[in-house]
Design brief:
The chain has 492 residues and is α/β, with parallel strands linked by helices. It has 3 domains: 200 residues, Alpha-Beta Complex (Maf protein), CATH 3.90.950; 192 residues, 3-Layer(aba) Sandwich (Rossmann fold), CATH 3.40.50; 51 residues, no CATH class. The chain is 38% helix and 19% strand. It starts with 16 loop residues before the first helix and ends with a helix.
């Protein structure tokens, strides 16, 4: 039985950093270590100054010298220090020392923790603003195993001292949240910014693990990072674990496919296969160095008003089952997405899209807030080494098929469109499957929810089985059986 007391959820105001640190210090059961590298000992400073720290702090240290650090934590395979693997080594090593050096017989009621960070702050030339990894490994019961919260931050301030102070405040919020808000991960996530301005630091990745978080879906936590305005883009892999976009995209050739994927249809996979084939045939593209991203915008998830978390997880589950890397972004305009990719790579990029999406790109209404209008947006979009791979559109009434050759844009945009088209920036996907042009995900989604038949044929192999087994997108075998019974009765 846990000896740990939950926090008072009826607090009307957010406690200050001093109040949070003092509450931790005055809890006789919490005991741990602090290991901070790269930005001073800013987190532990709050606990020292709050008072009563001798009851909480077993050790505080900073191994700034690389040889010292390597001797303590070992050498990373890539010989880097500001990495997730380095942070995990630090957390594991420090907890092991706690267990080795402190007798459980002497401290039967203590719950141990270790807080660590490894960061690099803004450089002297102020060209690189810095980033870092922050984490905590902690118990909530002496007899339980450890839980872990790891996050990645990107600094936004232009002063090293201010970055250090912000990091210290974030550390206090993380430790306090781990002990007093662990039963509500969404609130814990929000609390990272307690008394911190979101313009000072960005959190672009978080992962929860351990017995107390076994029911937490980290993909959902990623969604809340964007929803809460903590970052503009998050990423997770086929295994469902969150990934750091900067790490995945660094110096890569990137092919991005935007869609609703509600659900993934034969059209989506045809666009994927055919655009991938074209992209990899480019001279500047290496298959080994290519990263393919399935992207969903926050605006798409909000298409029906409020974000439906179950609907989001259904899409994520399906894409992960297909072995895809998924990205959720707050970039409704394509030029913002390309701008974001360009932060991490100068290699060739590709966007795969349908004709309808390209028509929207040439619609001036999306660029009214920009001083340079559509020309400024297109400068940002096509200034980079970018190509668009265009999937055709079929008019269901006339049967006419539209490609880049007969695309109808506003008369004012005609010359601009011609310029990019005839400069080889827009390439048609010609070897598409014409049978797929009448497949639409919204139609499939409606059929699934209504218990209709025939939608399985519109999906890639194996996808329908996943939907049925995991009851995604409102699928109900009972509703299907009932509808089929009604149809049989009507036909008899």
């Amino acid at each position: 039985m846990s000896i740990f007391l939950k926090g008072d959820t009826n607090l009307e105001t957010v406690p200050t950093f001093k109040q949070k640190a003092l509450r931790i210090n005055l809890n006789p059961n919490i005991y741990g270590t602090f290991a901070e590298i790269g930005a001073g000992q800013e987190t532990v400073r709050h606990f020292f100054r709050a008072g009563g720290s001798s009851q909480t702090i077993a050790k505080a240290m900073s191994a700034y010298d690389k040889d010292f650090s390597d001797d303590i934590y070992g050498i990373e395979p890539d010989k880097r220090y500001v990495t997730e693997s380095r942070l995990k080594r630090m957390l594991t090593h420090e907890i092991r020392l706690m267990e080795d050096r402190l007798s459980r017989q002497k401290h039967p009621d203590k719950v141990f923790f270790t807080y660590a960070n490894t960061v690099t702050t803004i450089d002297f030339a102020k060209k690189f603003k810095g980033h870092g990894w922050v984490g905590i490994k902690f118990q909530l019961d002496p007899l339980e195993d450890y839980n872990e919260i790891i996050l990645h931050v990107r600094f936004k301030q232009n002063d090293s001292r201010l970055q250090q102070e912000t990091l210290g405040m974030l550390g206090v919020n993380l430790i306090y949240g781990a002990f007093y808000l662990n039963d509500s991960p969404k609130d814990l996530l929000k609390s990272f910014y307690d008394n911190i301005d979101k313009d000072t630091i960005e959190i672009d990745m978080v992962n929860f693990s351990g017995s107390r978080f076994m029911y937490v879906d980290n993909r959902l936590m990623s969604l809340h990072l964007i929803k809460n305005g903590m970052t503009d883009a998050v990423m997770f892999g086929p295994d469902g674990n969150n990934l750091l976009p900067a790490q995945v995209l660094y110096k890569k050739n990137i092919l991005a496919l935007r869609g609703s994927y509600r659900p993934v249809t034969k059209v989506n996979m045809d666009i994927y296969e055919k655009s991938k084939e074209l992209f990899l045939s480019e001279n500047k593209v290496s298959e080994k160095n290519t990263k393919i991203i399935f992207e969903i915008t926050l605006a798409n998830l909000r298409a029906e008003g409020k974000i439906n978390e179950r609907d989001f997880l259904d899409r994520a589950e399906l894409l992960c089952s297909l072995g895809q890397t998924v990205m959720i972004t707050n970039f409704q305009e394509y030029y913002k997405l390309v701008d974001y990719f360009a932060e991490f790579t100068k290699a060739r990029m590709g966007l795969a899209m349908g004709v309808f999406n390209l028509i929207q790109i040439f619609d001036e209404k999306y660029y009214r807030e920009m001083s340079g209008g559509i020309l400024e947006a297109f400068g940002k979009l096509f200034y980079k080494d970018l190509k668009i791979y265009l999937y055709p559109l079929k008019d269901l009434e006339t049967g006419e098929i539209f490609t880049s050759k007969d695309l109808k844009v506003h008369p004012r945009m005609k010359e601009l469109y011609k310029y990019f088209k005839y400069n080889g920036r827009i390439m048609d996907i010609d070897n598409y499957n014409p049978d797929y042009l009448e497949v639409f995900s919204r139609k499939v989604f409606k059929m699934i929810g209504s218990g209709d038949t025939g939608w399985e044929d519109m999906l890639p192999e194996g996808v329908a089985e996943v939907i049925k087994e995991q009851r995604l997108f409102g699928y109900s075998q009972r509703r299907f059986n009932r509808k089929q019974g009604i149809n049989k009765k009507a036909n008899s």
